[in-house]
Design goal:
403 residues, alpha/beta, Rossmann fold, 7-stranded parallel β-sheet, 6-stranded parallel β-sheet
Length: 403
């Protein structure tokens, strides 16, 4: 962006606001948000609005960024409001989002563009929203929220015990305003879902995979698998272990590294996975909470990857495997099939089919080389440089259309 006016003088930067409730949680959604910040911090007067403070060092460690304090303004909800939200009855997440969006609507006129990587939001005016999977808020918020329009302050107070309803009223959500936003999605598959739910257009901008992935000769890589993702039930980590347990009798030197982090809401599943890992301790290893550099180093050392999540909306872990030079095997559903270019040798519809296809590749070196060549052509689709270029283009076009 050119930051100089027609007289060659420094022009005032356009003001941008990015809303992301919780940047402290590591995951694909926040990866998108953080690299949106990276894309816009130099060319815009950027503010980042979150529920509570976040640590720049933690962002840099988790996402491979190099943020400095002076590069953008960090806004967060005061401690007293955060305390009140957690002591009142109802669902915390709805309250947090309601307060953030109400705050956004109060200050929205100060900003030239408002963005989020937190799915569908109504900013009170047109903005840019990045949707990882549509929440069908048109239906959900009508069911839960719209009757608050007839509620006065006494009705609002009496309804506190109902949980969501009064907070949805505070949110003042309008599906019609939300659909005026410029919508970005993380895959063509998600875009089809969004268009099906809302009859509204969406542009695919693939999430970025941060970090430098050093090349390693195939012969020097370990004959093992990596599986990346939080330790949560939808990742099907127990099934991943079972799949490779059926491969090992035919290829006994393979092993598996499960690379992820524990999530607070799924303690029971975490304990089950730890128990299963212990049962196969000779060849399954649990790598918890690695730094970004540690994750990259580990993945680059291995030949293969495996993903267990069905109907994954995008599957950033699969893109990480490809950029690290792995051959990943993924369920034949969701946006992850786009990452591997819909290559049938890498897609499985059942666990039994996964075993069959893995063996076909592991036993045939020519197949491995053909797949590596195919996957190498796809890695740049998920680079941080491509993502930032697309975000800058989208924001510039949005501002141009406002004039």
């Amino acid at each position: 962006m050119n930051n100089f006016d027609t007289n060659g003088k420094k022009a005032a930067l356009k003001k941008a606001l990015l809303i992301q409730p919780d940047l402290q949680v590591h995951g694909g959604g926040n990866t998108v948000a953080v690299w949106m910040i990276e894309a816009l911090k130099s060319d815009y007067d950027l503010s980042v609005m979150t529920w509570m403070p976040f640590e720049l060092n933690a962002l840099n460690r988790n996402y491979g960024t190099g943020f400095k304090k002076a590069e953008f303004k960090a806004l967060h909800v005061p401690l007293l409001f955060r305390f009140l939200v957690f002591i009142l009855p109802g669902f915390h997440e709805i309250r947090k989002l309601s307060i953030l969006i109400r705050w956004c609507k109060i200050v929205r006129k100060r900003y030239d563009v408002i963005l989020t990587a937190y799915n569908e939001l109504d900013f009170g005016k047109k903005g840019i929203q990045y949707v990882h999977y549509p929440h069908r808020v048109l239906k959900r918020f009508r069911e839960q929220c719209l009757d608050t329009r007839q509620a006065g302050i006494w009705r609002w107070l009496n309804d506190l015990k109902s949980g969501n309803q009064p907070w949805c009223g505070l949110l003042d959500f309008s599906a019609e305003r939300m659909l005026e936003n410029r919508t970005l999605v993380n895959s063509n598959w998600t875009g089809e879902k969004f268009r099906g739910f809302y009859r509204s257009p969406a542009l695919t901008v693939y999430p970025p995979v941060p970090g430098e992935f050093p090349e390693a000769p195939w012969d020097e890589k370990e004959n093992g698998f990596v599986c990346i993702g939080r330790i949560s039930g939808e990742k099907r980590l127990e099934e991943v272990i079972d799949i490779l347990a059926h491969v090992r009798p035919h290829v006994p030197d393979i092993h598996l590294h499960i690379i992820g982090s524990k999530v607070s809401y799924n303690e029971g599943y975490y304990q089950r996975v730890k128990k299963k890992v212990a049962e196969h301790a000779a060849w399954v290893f649990l790598e918890e909470n690695p730094s970004r550099n540690e994750l990259i180093e580990l993945v680059c050392k291995h030949r293969y990857g495996i993903h267990g999540t069905k109907d994954e909306h995008f599957g950033i872990a699969v893109a990480e495997m490809i950029r690290a030079g792995c051959i990943p095997f993924v369920p034949d559903s969701g946006g992850q099939v786009e990452i591997v270019g819909r290559e049938p040798r890498l897609l499985y519809g059942s666990d039994a089919e996964a075993v069959e296809k893995i063996l076909d590749v592991l036993k045939h070196p020519k197949e491995q080389q053909a797949l590596l060549k195919h996957l190498a052509s796809r890695g740049d689709l998920f680079s941080t440089e491509k993502f930032m270029h697309q975000i800058r283009e989208v924001v510039a076009e949005f501002l141009q259309n406002k004039q």
